[in-house]
Design a protein that fits this description.
Blueprint: E1 2-5, E2 33-38, E3 43-47, E4 52-56, E5 59-62, E6 73-76, E7 82-86, H1 90-96, H2 106-115, E8 123-127, H3 133-142, E9 147-152, H4 155-169, E10 176-180, H5 183-190, E11 196-201, H6 210-216, E12 217-227, H7 230-243, E13 250-254, E14 259-262, E15 265-268, E16 277-283, H8 321-333, E17 343-344
Parallel strand pairs: 8-9, 8-11, 9-10, 10-17, 11-12
Antiparallel strand pairs: 1-4, 2-3, 2-7, 4-5, 6-7, 12-16, 13-16, 14-15
Helix pairs in contact: 2-3, 4-8, 5-6
Bound molecules: S-adenosylmethionine (SAM).
């Protein structure tokens, strides 16, 4: 498959008046992302451009020939193949967008939104931002009346996320503030005590940030962490208990099994994504309260604080620096005019004054 656009290779995404999917109703327009699905289920996603030409093994067309058509249109190409045209859903977009870090997939984002009880108007703290997949679900749930402060310690990942999120909403989301730095440092400098309704952590070591999250959360606020491995799960739960500022944590695994449904052949699919992550949630206690007394005394912890974990230790996949630089260059080229600024989480270091 090749997707050609002329004269500009990377059309900039036009700034949308109305945010997100609500601004992309009606017939297909230039500047919008469209998803083409062939009869084998293969999907190609690209932005409609006045000079654009779509080409694949299963047929080709000029973008101008589909602009003005309704979503859900099936066209038959000159080669006799059928192609379905739709605007991508957020779940599709997350799979097609450029990535620096591993993303939270929609099945997990759905659980995070529901179990962290993210509501319209909520004040939410999120880290790390990675490629911005979860950020988009959080922003959709809080709406323009909420506030999301997203913190990412890698500047290049933050910039990729800004580009992905701006492209999805069609412009800078007014409820979004994006800052670089370490979660605990940024919270200490930018977040008032007991000013946040929800904290959502998707990072290597959430247990290191339990104190910062407790400081930021309102009494009754929800802490939710998403982790990939059992040691991360266990260490985060023990840190929540040790802090004595949260209710007893709840932990569960997020697994979805697709089903094959065809006549009487109704059964689970032979293949599935067996594991993505565990979720851990707890509620912030009031400042003058301690957790309910546990019936059984806690089991002795198996961890000390000496070890330093790397993403390799937990087998997390990440891109090479070279790939991240390439992704970032492409992302920057197509940002809208009012691109989300990536702001420093901490004051910039001052140059020493020379006598
Ligand atoms: C798995 S990725 C997050 C993916 C993201 N939720 C998404 O859906 O695209 C984890 C990110 O956390 C960042 N990170 C890890 N520890 C951090 C910390 N203490 N403060 C801020 N960011 C952190 C990493 O740089 C990485 O980008």
């Amino acid at each position: 498959m090749s997707e050609q656009t002329t004269p500009a290779a990377q059309p900039r995404v036009a700034t949308q008046q109305v945010l997100g999917q609500a601004g992309r109703r009606g017939p297909l327009r230039y500047g919008e992302r469209v998803q083409v699905t062939d009869s084998k289920g293969r999907k190609h996603t690209f932005v409609l451009d006045p000079g654009g030409y779509f080409q694949s093994q299963r047929g080709s067309f000029y973008h101008r020939d589909v602009v003005g058509r309704d979503e859900g249109t099936v066209i038959t190409t000159e080669s006799g193949h059928e192609l379905l045209l739709l605007r991508p859903l957020l779940a599709d977009y997350v799979l097609s967008m450029p990535r620096g870090a591993q993303v939270v997939y929609t099945k997990d984002a759905g659980q995070i939104i529901a179990f962290a009880d993210i509501f319209p108007g909520a004040r939410v703290l999120e880290a790390g931002v990675g490629s911005g997949a979860l950020t988009m679900s959080l922003l959709s749930a809080i709406g323009e009346g909420g506030h999301l402060l997203s913190i990412e310690r890698r500047h290049d990942f933050a910039a990729i996320a800004a580009s992905n999120v701006d492209a999805w909403f069609g412009r800078h989301h007014p409820a979004w503030e994006l800052r670089t730095g370490d979660f605990a440092d940024v919270v200490a400098t930018h977040v008032a005590e007991a000013s946040v309704d929800r904290v959502v952590l998707d990072m290597l070591a959430p247990w290191e940030n339990v104190d910062a999250a407790a400081r930021a959360l309102v009494p009754g606020g929800v802490f939710l962490a998403y982790v990939a491995t059992v040691p991360q799960l266990s260490r985060t739960v023990e840190a929540l208990r040790q802090s004595r500022r949260f209710t007893e944590p709840e932990s569960w695994e997020s697994a979805v099994r697709n089903w094959h449904v065809d006549g009487l052949a109704v059964r689970p699919d032979h293949r599935m994504v067996a594991h993505t992550g565990f979720l851990i949630s707890a509620r912030r206690l009031a400042a003058d309260s301690a957790p309910l007394t546990r019936k059984r005394p806690p089991t002795r912890g198996a961890y000390d604080d000496a070890g330093y974990w790397t993403i390799e230790d937990v087998g997390e996949r990440t891109s090479t620096d070279r790939k991240v630089r390439r992704v970032l260059r492409d992302c920057r080229a197509k940002q809208p005019e009012d691109a989300t600024p990536v702001q420093p989480g901490l004051p910039e270091p001052q140059e020493p004054e020379h006598e």
